[in-house]
């Protein structure tokens, strides 16, 4: 049974629809990440789950309960707000304990929980300060702490780590994951723009755009088998390469062809088989392209030159181009190849994606 | 720094290196500004100054007609008379009776109207009330209708429920007439607060009154100060409502001041009149002095953000 079930929910601000008959089921104990471009309605969906926005149409169920008309305080959710929303006239300690005091928790219990959350978020030394005396990252940690001390069944996180430095972000990401493992039947719904967060934390990822959920699947599937062009382009950094071309069947077997470059599709798993001759967009991630420096391979794509090399620490992004076509390739090492060098590329058809350019759907 | 490294911009400024605080130059515009401010201050201060001087003079000095002259023999007699023995109509107990009446009217009126205004503003800006905008518009219209229009109907209503000519009656009238402006003030203040703050409190389990008392009210200090000042001056300076609704026992200070100044029998005691007038103005003055800093801050806070 789903812990959170959003059924055909529509929400509009004035005449502008933000969510349009959106449905999503989140299992008890699941960690769901909402991913999507700015303004696509992630916060709105979270607010609707918390009961802070009335839905225009549709239902929201928590377990057996239909909570569509319930007040936020009766829903048993804890939430981290995108804008922190700390109570300005309360100290950090009072901010953290406010929800517990509302729930008439015992004093000793409150103190223990606040201490535990403060230790985890490294804000023990800030407990007696006011929010206005904190930095952005410190405020954000207090906002997370305010949710963590609560005894909720459902946690809603709206970009909780967006303002932290890389180090703290990694630490807290791990802490949130650990927390989720410890509270085995707590459901967490987590909005982020950070792909690493999405891919590392999530049991499933929902990619949203245009008032709808574009794909809802485990992170590996989102990454390896994106359902459409949007998901393919949105998930993954550096971005997936796209090449326009056609599907052909010169001798029975399907082949992708762009100009005089070809990619045999024997190893490709089709979602639906296209008719030979139809247009297609090939998507390949930079790490799924190999560079062939010596040796022969009739299938390799030749005629490309290294344009720019971007070192990224452990590996480098090598931009190869030939007139209109530009392909980014991920290579190990800091300076794997010199700009201007001629390269031949080997694409892995098993890990590539094909899309219908008209509808954007995966082939 | 040696002159050898003076840059071209420095030279353009006459060889002076721009450093530290920018110098203020006295321009014609500035002088005009100061002249205007000074004359405006004078315009308000002069009458007050004359009142103060006159109240400190004995009657003989006043009769000489030198109203700008400092008192030759300053005395507080007129003040004592104004406070304790000046005649207001038939009784001669001074203005102190009116003072205490005004205090008794002021305290409950201000507390009630400010709290109700805050609660109203909070409900209107945060809670989804069907037709909230219409309600608010009506309330606003109420703020602009001259209240003389309401006097007669209110008198009839009050006398039919038996609170006409009583302390409760006059307090209620002040609360009613204060409501539009108080609500407007608080609604605009709360509308400028981030809504997510309210949402966070709701998720944390707060209800209507808990959020108001624990989250919103503590944040409202600046606007509370503004509201209190407005109401204190408004209620204290009120004349017509007090005259109409308070009843003989509870006549406020303003009405009694009028009685003293306009008493027809005997010689006119200008020094007593002046002293009584200054005494009547003391409360609003004190409020301004005590909270002036807060007042300015409150206006700024309401204008920008909490
Ligand atoms: N109170 C509001 N009134 C009118 N429109 C709103 C309101 N709140 C949000 N919107 C609109 O609804 C859409 C979705 O907003 P939402 O805050 O859910 O986006 P989001 O996905 O959380 O974006 P971000 O990643 O930038 O936080 C946006 O186009 C926004 O302009
Ligand atoms: Mg958002």
TrEMBL record, chain A:
Drop me one GO molecular function for this one.
Answer: ABC-type transporter activity
Q: Which Gene3D superfamilies match?
A: 2.40.50.100, Nucleic acid-binding proteins, P-loop containing nucleotide triphosphate hydrolases
Listed under GO biological process in this entry are: carbohydrate transport
UniProt subcellular location: Cell inner membrane
Q: Name one Pfam family in it.
A: ABC_tran
Recorded topology in the membrane: Peripheral membrane protein
Q: Please tell me where this protein is predominantly located.
A: membrane
**Any one Gene Ontology cellular component term annotated for this protein:** ATP-binding cassette (ABC) transporter complex, substrate-binding subunit-containing
Give the keywords, sorted. Answer: ATP-binding, Nucleotide-binding, Transport
Q: Where are the transmembrane segments?
A: none
Instruction: Please state every residue range assigned to the domain named ABC transporter.
Output: 4-235
Family, according to the entry, reads as follows: Belongs to the ABC transporter superfamily.
Protein name, as recorded = ABC transporter ATP-binding protein
- Organism the protein comes from: Salinarimonas ramus
From TrEMBL, chain B:
Question: Which SUPFAM superfamilies does UniProt cross-reference here?
Answer: MetI-like (SSF161098)
- Principal location class: membrane
| Membrane-crossing segments per the record | 31-52, 105-127, 134-155, 167-190, 211-232, 274-296
Query: What is this protein's name?
Result: Sugar ABC transporter permease
Entry-linked CDD domains: TM_PBP2 (cd06261)
Q: Which InterPro entries does this one have? A: MetI-like, MetI-like_sf
Q: Which PANTHER family match?
A: ABC TRANSPORTER PERMEASE PROTEIN, GLUCOSE IMPORT SYSTEM PERMEASE PROTEIN GLCU
Per UniProt, subcellular location reads as:
Cell membrane
Domain ABC transmembrane type-1: start-end pairs: 99-291
Please name the source species: Salinarimonas ramus
Tell me the GO BP annotations in alphabetical order. Answer: transmembrane transport
Cellular component aspect of the GO annotation:
plasma membrane
- One Pfam family of this chain: BPD_transp_1
Q: Which domain of life is it from?
A: Bacteria
Sequence similarity: Belongs to the binding-protein-dependent transport system permease family.
How is this protein situated with respect to the membrane? Multi-pass membrane protein
Q: What is the lineage of its organism?
A: Bacteria, Pseudomonadati, Pseudomonadota, Alphaproteobacteria, Hyphomicrobiales
Enumerate the UniProt keywords alphabetically. Answer: Membrane, Transmembrane, Transmembrane helix, Transport
């Amino acid at each position: 049974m789903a812990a959170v079930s959003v059924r055909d929910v529509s929400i509009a601000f004035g005449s502008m629809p933000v969510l349009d008959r959106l449905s999503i089921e989140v299992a008890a104990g699941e960690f769901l990440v909402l991913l999507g471009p700015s303004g696509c309605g992630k916060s709105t969906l979270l607010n609707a789950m918390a009961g802070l926005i009335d839905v225009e149409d549709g239902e929201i169920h928590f377990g057996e309960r239909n909570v569509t008309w319930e007040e936020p305080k009766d829903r048993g959710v804890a939430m981290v707000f995108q804008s922190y929303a700390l109570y300005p006239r309360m100290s950090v300690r009072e901010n953290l304990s406010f929800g517990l005091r509302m729930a008439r928790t015992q004093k000793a219990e409150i103190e223990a929980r606040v201490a535990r959350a403060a230790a985890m978020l490294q804000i023990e030394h800030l407990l007696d300060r006011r929010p206005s005396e904190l930095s952005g990252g410190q405020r954000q940690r207090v906002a997370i702490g305010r949710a963590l001390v609560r005894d909720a069944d459902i946690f809603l996180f709206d970009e909780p780590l967006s303002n932290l430095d890389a180090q703290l972000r990694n630490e807290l990401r791990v802490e949130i994951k650990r927390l989720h493992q410890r509270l085995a039947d707590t459901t967490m719904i987590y909005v982020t723009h950070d792909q690493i967060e999405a891919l590392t934390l999530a049991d499933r990822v929902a990619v949203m755009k245009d008032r709808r959920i574009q794909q809802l699947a485990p992170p590996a599937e989102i990454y390896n088998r994106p359902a459409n062009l949007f998901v393919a382009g949105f998930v993954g950094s550096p971005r997936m390469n796209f090449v326009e071309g056609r599907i052909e069947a010169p001798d029975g077997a399907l082949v992708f062809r762009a100009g005089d470059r070809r990619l045999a599709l024997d190893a490709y798993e089709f979602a639906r088989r296209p008719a030979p001759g139809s247009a297609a967009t090939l998507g390949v991630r930079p790490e799924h392209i190999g560079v062939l420096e010596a040796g022969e391979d009739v299938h390799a794509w030749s005629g490309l030159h290294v344009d720019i090399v971007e070192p990224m620490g452990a590996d480098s992004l090598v931009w190869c181009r030939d007139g209109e076509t530009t392909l980014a390739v991920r290579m190990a090492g800091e300076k794997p190849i010199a700009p201007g060098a001629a390269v031949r590329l080997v694409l892995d058809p098993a890990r590539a994606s094909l899309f219908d350019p008209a509808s954007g759907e995966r082939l | 720094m040696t002159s050898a490294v003076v840059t071209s911009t420095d030279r353009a400024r006459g060889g002076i290196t721009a450093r530290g605080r920018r110098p203020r130059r006295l321009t014609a515009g500035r002088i005009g500004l100061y002249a205007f401010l000074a004359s405006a201050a004078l315009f308000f201060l002069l009458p007050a100054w004359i009142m103060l001087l006159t109240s400190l003079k004995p009657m003989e000095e006043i009769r000489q007609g030198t109203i700008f002259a400092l008192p030759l023999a300053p005395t507080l007699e007129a003040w004592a008379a104004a406070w304790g023995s000046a005649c207001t109509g038939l009784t001669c107990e001074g203005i102190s009776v009116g003072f205490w009446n005004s205090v008794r009217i002021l305290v409950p009126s201000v507390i009630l109207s400010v709290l109700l205004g805050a609660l109203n503003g909070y409900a209107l800006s945060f809670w989804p009330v069907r037709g909230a905008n219409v309600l608010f518009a009506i309330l606003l219209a109420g703020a602009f209708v001259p209240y003389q229009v309401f006097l007669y109907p209110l008198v009839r209503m009050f006398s039919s429920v038996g609170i006409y000519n009583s302390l409760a009656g006059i307090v209620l009238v002040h609360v009613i007439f204060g409501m539009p402006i108080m609500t407007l003030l608080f609604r605009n203040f709360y509308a400028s607060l981030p809504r997510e703050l309210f949402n966070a409190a709701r998720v944390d389990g707060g209800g209507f009154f808990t959020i108001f008392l624990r989250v919103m009210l503590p944040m409202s200090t600046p606007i509370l100060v503004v509201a209190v000042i407005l109401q204190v001056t408004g209620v204290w300076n009120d004349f017509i409502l007090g005259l109409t609704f308070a009843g003989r026992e509870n006549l406020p200070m303003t009405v009694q001041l009028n009685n003293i100044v306009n008493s027809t029998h005997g010689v006119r005691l200008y020094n007593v009149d002046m002293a009584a007038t200054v005494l009547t103005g003391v409360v609003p003055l004190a409020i301004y002095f005590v909270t002036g800093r807060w007042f300015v801050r409150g206006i700024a806070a309401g204008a920008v953000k909490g």
